[in-house]
Every structure is written in C-alpha cells, then in structure tokens.
Amino acid sequence: MVARRRLHGKGLGLRRGLMAALEADWPESVDFLEVAPDNWIDLGGRHGRRFRSLTERCPLVCHGLSLNLGGTAPLDEPFVRRVKQFLAEHSAVLYSEHLSFCADDGQLYDLLPIPFTAEAVMHVAARIRRVQDVLGQRIAIENASYYCAPGAEMREIDFLKAVLQEADCDLLLDVNNIFVNSVNHGYDALEFLRALPTARIAYGHVAGHEREGEDLIIDTHGAPVVDPVWALLAQAYAIHGVFPTLLERDFNLPPLPDLLGELAIVGNLQRGAAPASAAGGA
To answer: Are 185 and 147 in contact (CB under 8 A)?
Structure first.
C-alpha cells in the first residue's frame, strides 16, 4: 500500500462560504485543509480552478461522508475508485471516513450508529479493508457521535479498538465526539482517551456543539468550541502526544478571523503540550 505522509500542525475545513476570504488573504496559520470529496468530486470549470488554487497552497486531507462503512448494501466500489482518482489529482495526504452507516436502499443523509457487536466488528472491518485495497492506501476512521446504541453487546471503546485492529486502519480522533458521547452516555471521557491506541492516530478533529440539557448534547459543528472540549484536547495531547488537529465548522460560519482565532487556540495547545505520558493504548 502507498505509505501515508505525515501531517503536522492545525487545519481548517474548506467550505464554499470561506473560499472568497481565503483567496483574498491566505492565512499562513493554516497548515492543512480538509474537504469532503463527496461535495467537490465533480467540480469543474472556474469553480474547479478556484478549488485547486486553494488546495495547492497546503497539504489536503479528504474526509468522506457517504461510504456507508457500516451498512449492508454492497460497497460502492465505482465511487471508491472515483475517490482514488480525486485523491491522486489533488495530492491528498490521507482519506478518512466515519464509523457509521448512512444508506439503506438509498442515501439517508445522516450518520447512524453501528451496533456495538462482535459481528458488526467483522462486517465493518471487512468493508474498510476492501476500501483500503481499492485505494491502495490506509484510511482513518472517525469515532462517531451517537444518541442511542441499539443492540450493543460491548462498550464503544472496545468496539472502536476492535475495528481498528481487525481492519488494520488508522484513527481520526474526534475529541468533541468523545466529549459529546461521554455526557450523553455517562462515561468518563478521560478514561476513553487513555484507552485509545496512540500509534493509530492519524489526525484529530475539534468542533462545537449545542447543549440541549444536562445529559444531552447535539453534535452540530455549528458553534464555537467550548472550554471543556479545549481541555479534553489538551489532555489528548498529554496522553498521546501532539497530533495534527482540524477545526470543524460546517454551518453558521463566522468571519474567517473568528475561525482563525479558534485555530490559534489549537496551535497554543500544541506548542504548550507536555511530553506524552505512557497512558495511551498500544
């Protein structure tokens, strides 16, 4: 398989609403960009040239939305091959996807939880391995936020680690999702962090959310990152070492300087991180 080049630093999700500001004054503080290839793969003409002019400025990461890794419908291998071409055309550093399913006789336009069972581990791991075979490179899977755990026979952390091991893939560590799930499902976020396999972390996500109640948070990516999530990111660096980290903002986009202010917090935490402890998983 193609070796994965290393990212570094702090990244920003590229949204169409940010393109004009980025074109007008490229921020040197952005070390990499992330895009969902599903939303850009057929872009051509003037808009395609604008897209390429931005992705050529720094390393590019691709974060998929529609592979349906946990689904039962046949894997859409023609789409995976189109993704492979997109990755090559834009010299993408790596490709990631969600540990969830999003289709059932048609696209569901939502990311739904996979049952935490041994059978599901084998099912989704086989699909990840096939995607890696078609792409000719490793992918990273993201620990997903979820609001119910139908048919669960094991803990989320045990399910996640089993999939990573069986599929032999990398991890996109979403710190906000750990915080959201820890509140919604009543587990210790720090214990979850410590149990993760350090060597498999390719990069991370940090994002905002909406609190609906004392024990209910909705993962929206539409608000600023809150202090407890920043604190958890600092803990993640202390446990696993500094890893490349992307600021996610999908809607309610503020002016670019506001996003860069949040990105500066990521950079400050990375620079101030103590050496990793030996607490991270193997």
So the answer is: no
